[in-house]
UniProtKB/TrEMBL annotation:
Listed name of the protein: S-formylglutathione hydrolase FrmB
Gene3D superfamilies: alpha/beta hydrolase (3.40.50.1820)
Signal peptide (residue range): 1-35
InterPro entries per the UniProt record, alphabetical: AB_hydrolase_fold, Esterase-like, Mycobacterial_A85_antigen
């Protein structure tokens, strides 16, 4: 298979331009109760598979319809183990791989060798499509909530659908890149016991990150995502308030919701789950590893003391993950961490998927 190179998160120049354009979008400001309404529950908006596409012997694409996605269909790609059958008497553990900003369900198979990596493993790989700016969250929508409700859709609709009709078991691990790294850790913290292990590759683990030296801030990625999705970025979590959108320290707007969706803010709830964090410093000097090489050496994890300047997105990711790493250590929450020289691109993410793969498989008994 030929794998294309590219970004699953935002390219640095494009993200800066999109962030600037996002500021031109109309403002949606509303102060409402902080609880999500009962209408977001999966029982009220069930998902169903409307089409199956067998891509090859192992790859099955499912077209899923749900009112909670704000789309006619969203796809879920499955990589299936040997001897899998919908009629089997057994189930298989699952590895969920979450895409990044501007990504979709095809990203992992298009940009990595995940098919080969999992070929001899007795597990189902689940690669769901959300949107390029989903935040893996139920959207605020100016306080109205409603669709899209991505967390409800994935965890309360797609997950039980796979367990009911596609022989997915209840032992699960989750990993993601960029926005997907935020989603993987957010889901793990918010739903204790749902996932047996979690990995974040260049994860946007602090959406409220404030660059100390004028670089890319956390909210900039959300604003850029709104342009990528052709929507108002404020629909996702509202506005972050001070110090990003106002000079008034008392004006926090919907910052409570940004914190609700921040792995950094919920680091304590990650305790008890095997964790893997990898991130670069934004300095591009080559990956030093390619598919087919021996498993990545621990020598790659050089723990850079400061960020570089080549990749503005990974520069911000570096700051976010340094904060999360410090907080986990302060709380006594164990995590395997690899901080290295590198940028926000697929060769690094594939390397770290391979490096973390034994931990993820061990957690689900595959």
């Amino acid at each position: 298979m030929v794998h294309r190179a590219g970004h699953g998160g935002f390219g640095a120049r494009a993200a800066r331009a999109l962030a600037a354009l996002a500021l031109l979008l109309p403002v949606v400001v509303a102060q409402t109760a902080r609880a999500e309404p009962a209408e977001a529950r999966a029982a009220d908006h069930p998902a169903r598979v409307v089409k199956e596409v067998r891509v090859d012997d192992r790859t099955l694409d499912l077209a899923v319809s749900s009112p909670d996605t704000e789309a006619l269909i969203k796809w879920v790609r499955l990589l299936l183990p040997e001897h899998w059958s919908k009629d089997a008497s057994r189930t298989w553990p699952t590895l969920w791989l979450l895409h990044g900003g501007t990504g979709n369900h095809l990203d992992w198979t298009a940009n990595t060798h995940v098919e080969e990596l999992t070929a001899d493993r007795d597990a189902i790989v689940v690669m769901p499509e959300t949107s390029g700016c989903s935040g893996y969250s139920n959207w605020y929508n100016g306080g109205k909530w409603g669709a899209p409700a991505w967390e409800t859709y994935l965890l309360d609709q797609v997950r039980p659908l796979l367990e009911r009709d596609y022989r997915a078991g209840t032992r699960r691990a989750v990993a993601g890149l960029s926005m997907g790294g935020q989603g993987a850790l957010k889901f793990t913290a918010a739903h204790p016991g749902l996932f047996s292990a979690a990995a974040s590759y260049s994860g946007a683990v602090n959406p409220l990150y404030r660059s100390p030296d004028g670089g890319f801030n956390g909210p900039d990625a959300v604003k850029a995502g709104g342009i990528a999705c052709l929507t108002d970025w404020r629909r996702v979590w509202g506005e972050p308030g001070y110090p990003f959108d106002t000079d008034d320290p008392a004006d926090l707007r919907q910052q409570w919701l940004w914190k609700r969706n921040s792995p950094l803010e919920h680091a304590a709830e990650l305790a008890g789950t095997p964790l893997y964090l990898s991130y670069g410093n934004g300095a591009e000097k080559g990956v030093g590893w390619k598919w087919g090489d021996p498993r990545p050496s621990a020598a790659r994890c050089t723990n850079p003391a400061a960020h570089g300047t080549d990749d503005q997105i990974e520069r911000a990711v570096f700051g976010m993950n340094q904060q999360l790493r410090a907080k986990l250590a302060q709380l006594g929450v164990p995590a395997t961490v690899c901080a290295s020289t590198g940028g926000h691109t697929w060769p690094y993410w594939e390397r770290e998927l391979v490096a973390s793969f034994p931990m993820l498989m061990k957690a689900i008994g595959a």
